[in-house]
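Write out this protein's structure.
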Amino acid sequence: MASNKSHNGYTDEMIGILLIVLGLLLGISLLTYHPDDLSFSTASSHPQIQNAIGRVGANLSDLFFQLFGISSYLFPVFSTILGVRFFREGRGPLTRRGLAGSALLLLTLSSFAEMEWGGPTSMASPNFRGGIVGRMLSRFFLDYFASIGSHIILLFLFLLGWMLISPFSPRAAVSRLQERFSELRQSILEQIVIRKSKKKRRAAAPPAPTSEPEIARTPAVEPSAPKITIPPQQEAFPFARPDEGDYRLPPLSLLSDPSGTGKRMTEEEWVAQSRILERKLLDFDVEGKVTQVHPGPVVTMFEFEPAPGIKLNRITNLADDLALAMKAMQVRIVAPLPGKSTVGIEIPNVVREEVLLKEVLSSPSYNQIGSKLRLALGKDIFGNSVSADLATMPHLLIAGSTGSGKSVGLNGMILSLLYSATPAEVKMLMIDPKMLEFSLYDGIPHLVAPVIVRAKAASDALRKMVAEMQRRYQLLAEKGVRNIEAYNKLLKSSPPPPPKTEEPPPGGKPPLEHGPLPYIVILIDELADLMMVAPRDVEDSITRLAQMARAAGIHLVLATQRPSVDVITGVIKANFPARIAYCVSSKIDSRTILDANGAEQLLGKGDMLYLSAGTGKIARIHGAYVSEEEIKKVTTFVKEQASPHYETSLSEEAPSPEEASSNERDDLYEQARELVITTGQASASFIQRRMRVGYPRAARMIEMMEEDGVIGPASGGKPREILVKKDPT
């Protein structure tokens, strides 16, 4: 069976090579045809043959031209093509459809050539006439259909033959012509509209207004504000502190004003851009129309309504193709838009506007939040300022690659807290293993400890924050309240209790001292560095704080540039419903932080996706920019108002529970010592089995005995030597 297949393949290759050679010889013969060469139909007195193939070529070309005329040129073409296909594909190409199409082309071309250039009085060379075949067919058509009818029939037969040998489709050709005509017509109309608008702007005496164009004031462009921009109102409680004095919040004049030099596009230009987007989508066989345009400071959203029958995945898969077609850096597609039958296509603006922190801090979205933990995030794609309340989140997880704007966003959040709360109202614990991001804030009065840069000290500080959380819960329980807001409100409304002079009982714990409790915001940048040093301790502390610290007024803001599953573990992720993703490198990172794609298509420089807590909806926000000079001005101002009061225990490294327990005498140590001396066996497994304790505890007691000189050091697989003899009494 295999030999038959190989034999058939060998035969096909030979046939293919033979057809190619015959096609080349015939083609050269026809191209070098000379009517004076001696041949079947010509008697010449010139003995020299001018045909390149010699006498055989002269006779062969004369025979073909006498029979088929100009159609003879098709024979070498067909022979070469058929030979190549035989050589590559075998006998498959030789089909009835191909043979019928080739015959139709040959016959119709011969007939047409004879009608145009033949006849008894024609002086045309045989290679430009129809030959005997063409003469017979043309005479038949002219006798029965006259000249016009014959031309129409021959044109139809020629098209039919072309369709049989090629994938040509008249319907597709007409459709493409219509599309090209429609594009040309639309382009001409757009150019007319743009030129008219330019002439109107030049003719107008006053300068063009700097306010937003009319398209931005239509109801379609000003939708209802996202939920994150107007969070639930929370009553603010001023804390009374004796050392607060005349502390003043920083003025907005310390921050930079927007330059206002950005150029906005006109309504006509947006309409023209919409038509271009429709044409580009039509190039990918996606029909529809742009119904609304939402210009923003950084990107513009086009609401595209697809035609019936268009699936959403056909549109969402075109993000990279549209970016190439629209000459954009990135294109993000939101399909579908909530509550609408349209798809949102976000395309970056050619000119990017500035989004500064001062604009957001002076906006109603920031000032309407009654909480002391309000955060200024930036502006949404419609140009509306967006702020959020950390107290209702209640924790925030941030991720973004290097250069995505994550550090600038953290600085904006810190300044938001400095602009909204005094040191008596909000305290901060800053952990900066990179030793770069939070150095500007060292020494501000809002810190509970100097900026922590060592991973071991950070792990200890988090463990002590857990202890502070538990202390606060005891205070809340004694007052019978459920959260820190109610606790502070109760202390403010009730008279201060008299000072207690009695001493605590021997061995008892001192009574708790009640007083106003400030919020504590723990900021960590970079979480990955901490997880590398002490993953279990850090994860345990963060998990306990995230699960329980909300009512105690302790909130976490974690940032990382490596959102992998070993850094953002499932336990941490489950306790951080509010998350921000800046530009990341892959879809996997985007799904790790947001449980959805999209962050890999962001533009960087503060462009973010915000997943709000409770709603579960993702909103695109352009982060507010704050420069290093602005940070220095604000921190200098607050440092002049008050000095920090550090909790010294937070800045000192405390021994871990294992280290602390190893330095203390175990309650069962004496009993284990007597057991080793009496039995003469000294091993951790022996103590574990006889005293029914855990192996780590038994191993620590063996180490203590070695330190006390009861037993000797370990010597490989040999038992330890007992250095203390048993008391004979």
